[in-house]
Amino acid sequence: MEVTKSSRIPSFIREAVEEDLRTGRFTYVRTRLPPEPNGYLHIGHCKAFLIDYFTAKEFGGELYLRFDDTNPAKEETEFVEAIQEDAAWLGIKWDKVTFASDYFDLLYEWAVKLVKMGLAYVDDQSQEEMSANRGTLPKGTKWSETEAAVRPGVDSPWRNRSVEENLDLLERMKNGEFPEGSRVLRAKIDMAHPNILMRDPVMYRIMHVPHHRTGTKWHIYPMYDWSHGQNDSMEGITHSLCSNEYIIHRPLYEWFIEKLGIFPSRQIEFSRLNLTYAMMSKRKLRKLVESGIVRGWDDPRLTTLRGLRRRGVPPEAIIEFVTGLGETKNDSWVEMAQFEAVIRDVLNKTALRRMAVLKPLKLVIDNYPDDLVEEMDAINNPEDPAAGTRKVPFSKVLYIEQDDFREVPPPKYFRLFPGNEVRLRYAYLVKCTHVVKDEKGNITEVHCTYDPATRGGDAPDGRKVKATIHWVSAQHAVRAEVRLYEQLFTVERPDEGELDEILNPNSLEVLSDCLVEPSLSNSAPGERFQFERVGYFCTDPDSRPGQPVFNRTVTLKDSWAKIESKLK
RNA sequence: UGGGGCGUGGUGCAACGGCAGCACACCAGACUUUGGAUCUGUGGAUCUUGGUUCGAGUCCAGGCGCCCCAGCCA
After folding, report:
1. Which nucleotide has its C1' atom closest to residue A559's CA?
2. Which domains does chain A possess?
3. Predicted interface score ipTM higher than 0.90
4. Scanning A108, A304, A367, A372, which has the fewest C-beta atoms within 10 Å of its C-beta?
5. Which chain B nucleotides are covered by protein, judged by CB under 7 A?
């Protein structure tokens, strides 16, 4: 199977798959998405999802979406729906939806088989005893600052029970005869193994908790290590792609495959995505939502898929970003700026341009006829001629951006100021004559004159202006709410900080008196625009007909802001 | 004083023994009816010490640094 150069998957994974196909280790490719249904998808999950998806796709294989629902105490059906919805929005297509719980019966049979082989046993030790008998790591690790040397584990007193007794106890564990925590089934490997995961790992624990799919049938539930790899085998998954934290699990993954003689799925690891300023911790994400710090799982400041979607980030941008990162096994932190650059790139090519004034300042053209209204031709997207043009109404009284006028201009400022001429986009050249102030000295109106010969924005005499500003016609403009977002956190690695110390108090600014051009009046939620010279925006579901609400996705690059900040 | 993984500009990736390249960021400039986009240019990196080799980011040996692992979580 040949894969094109424009591969969307990491080269070291592609090479491994190609090799497996070439050597005949596998004759087909099948991958799996393994979400645990206990939370919403975020940008970090996308990486694994996309790698699994594109690996299957590029090799003409299949992708299964398999929910890892082995812990009924934490999981809910709600998330099963949400995850599928979000993954579908991203553009991922799968061939089949399965659940770890689909395989509970077969898995149990395999456990019985291991018991019969003398490779698993029921342990009656308490959790504390088990932990104490597992041995220790040396000092210098985060678990053991002062503790002495490595200590191997010691065998459980129950380690050498007879097969018959183990079989009986396991059966009764399954039937719910014992209290939670009283017994577990363990694989019998090696309590002195240097890899702690191999020191007789727990396979089943007792939980008298109803499961969202199997109800009250089971009183024991499998641990990750005794489920995931077995499910991979049962489903004929060829490549089980996961993050680096599972590297240490691989020997155990392979131990079960070998002892059971089952289909030899291959686990390959890659580094997870770390994005600066993004919250990935499930626990903290939940806290943000439940405490009301953000508006919900789809708050546009969150890097959940739902948040990104509401914010206006197109799925293609996420795909471009993630697949464009390249991949190694290195621990890495990607800068949010890189994500934003991709978002701008995609939106620049696709978003329709509109004029919107966020902080309005009245502009009166004194020599323009009082009742005249002209329809100006405006280009919808200079990057895409096929997007066509539209008409925008123009009249004597307009609103412009407060930032676009200065009574006393700083150096290099070439927008509107008394005596200066600028272009009103797609309209006329206007020259500022004077301002009107209220009793407090605030500017309430800017007055100017226009040059009737410059309709459309070009001067017949060839004179140039250094700035073009956007505007809306006062009598035609639609009032809108605009929500401006900044980073939710003040630190690059919010997962590592205390929530109340790292929140950016200015992460949300709501502007309720914005004025936008009439064509935006009935924009549908999810529509994305570039408000010229301001940024990219997406219509929010809170919008009502004639009362649109917009979320700022990202700003435009603002070179004036840079100049201005240097002046200070 | 365990086991495992990883070290290339500020950040993320390339270079599979042969001129260290790309993107983002940064800086300078050109162009512009978006101070957008586009274009051009500058600066800046192989963790370290040895070894092998005509030649090492790459191979070998030793250091150093960072990350992961003692849930009946996944």
Report:
1. B35
2. 11-270 (3.40.50.620), 277-350+480-516+521-568 (2.40.240.10), 354-477 (2.40.240.10)
3. yes
4. A372
5. 1-8, 10-16, 23-27, 33-38, 66-74
CB A402 within 8 A of CB A360: yes
Phi, psi of A462 (to 5 degrees): 80, 5
Our measurement of CA A190 to C1' B51, in angstroms, reads: 40
Query: What is the model's pTM?
Result: 0.95
CB of A329 within 8 A of CB of A269?
yes
Contacts of residue A46, Cβ cutoff 8 Å, sequence gap at least 6: A90, A273, A305, A318, A322
Give the CA distances from residue A402 to residues A251, A444, A498, in Å, rounded to whole numbers and listed in that order: 64, 10, 38
Distance in Å, residue A535 CA to nucleotide B38 C1': 18
According to the model, what pLDDT value does residue A20 have? 95
Asked if residue A562 has pLDDT above 50, the reply is: yes
Please list the active-site residues of A: 36, 272, 282
Q: How far is the CA of A21 from the C1' of B47 (A)?
A: 37
How do beta strands A62-67 and A30-33 pair? parallel
Residue A345 CA distance to nucleotide B40 C1' (Å): 20
* A19-31 pLDDT per residue, tens: 999 999 999 999 9
